[in-house]
Write a structure and sequence with these properties.
Number of domains: 1
Strand content: under 5%
Number of helices: 2
Helix content: 40-55%
């Protein structure tokens, strides 16, 4: 098995990663939202729409 971050050989101590560094990099991706699991909760969908619309408002005012 190879490390999902750098493709180096897996270290049993950090499996499935090769090192603590790669494990930490993967964890950071979860924390910053690079990885996410989809939600079908109507409240989550509604909140996402509101955030998207709020982010688009400043862009629309520039034009």
């Amino acid at each position: 098995m190879s490390c999902p971050m750098c493709r180096a050989t897996t270290n049993p101590k950090y499996r499935p990663f090769c090192s603590r560094r790669c494990a930490d990099l993967d964890l950071a991706k979860w924390f910053n939202g690079s990885y996410a699991t989809p939600s079908r909760d109507p409240e989550d969908i509604e909140a996402a729409i509101e955030l998207t619309e709020a982010a688009e408002e400043p862009l629309q005012k520039k034009h």
